[in-house]
Amino acid sequence: MSKDYYKTLEVNKDATNDDLKKAYRKLALKYHPDRNPDDKQAEDNFKEINEAYACLSDTQKRAHYDQFGSEEGAGAGGFGGGFGDFSGNFGDIFGSVFGDIFGDARGRGRTRATQGHDLRYDLDLTLNEAVFGTEKDIIIPGLEDCKTCTGTGAKPGTSPITCKTCQGTGQTKMQQGFFTIARTCHSCRGAGQIISDPCTACNGQGKVRKERKVNLKVPAGVDTGIRLKMTGEGEAGTHGGPHGDLYVVLDVKPHPFFKRKDNDLHCEVPISFVQASLGGEIEVPTIDGNAHIKIPAGTPSGRVFHLRSKGVPKLGSYGRGDQFVSIFIDVPKKLSTRQKELLKEFAEISGDDVAKGFMDKIKDIFHQHQDQKEAK
Q: 335-352 pLDDT, tens per residue?
């Protein structure tokens, strides 16, 4: 015996048809490719149990197998060895055992209710809108049920008729030995129905292209890349099926002053040399308005001041990020004669020889360092 089909199905040789069906159902669920993606061993096991069940569930082939230890010659068409071969009669064997667990492969036609397609909409936001949230009316193009025919595609007062070729299933079948091959019905093109008198408003399609206005509420704290789902705002379904969903993808445009990092905001604020030297209080912008910062005397360029809770609200949570203000000294490009005189006087008092070049100053620092080292 080349293959032990009873062992493959894990049943005894006196197993009844019900026993075979139960065993096959259990193993097919275990090794079905949908449950074991990219598993070659599970695929091979699935082929073997289908081959075994196809033989033992047929009275004539089972008797031949029990007598000769082989299925060959038991009936026209044989069994085939490939998974692709078995898929042809999937509806006859697998469907008869499982019904609609994995879908009725024998086909119920395409007249069943189907959910509409999901749609995507890209929405640009300013930083202020992202920080505080906003409300937008957006225009969504899509397909909607034709109001004239209420989505049937038939002229008002008429109805689609069931296709006589496929009896409303949308498929025709051809038997090739043991296998049954299902094909899309050529008469109704898989719809299961034929519209003899189509609706003139939608040309029998049952759908018309239409723009809809949708109100979108954007929560505070969103950022670029976030998707907002609007259930039921996608395209209309077919044959009474529900609408699909709408996904709004957000893109927050750069701000001329603030730079965002997660929930924090960063900015740079200029101060004068006098302010940096003497200190004082300056006014800086925040996303909420202006705030005041005290500048200590002798503040160097690049110092960062921290403003708590002046950043972006945390999406779906409590609290806000912070704002970081980086100070830089704004050097004036044009000075009056009097300003130059005062700065030179300041330099002289400070012992800073402005006439020396940069390299000369470096040499002085080097020599001073050497003198201190020798003195030690």
A: 888 888 888 888 788 776
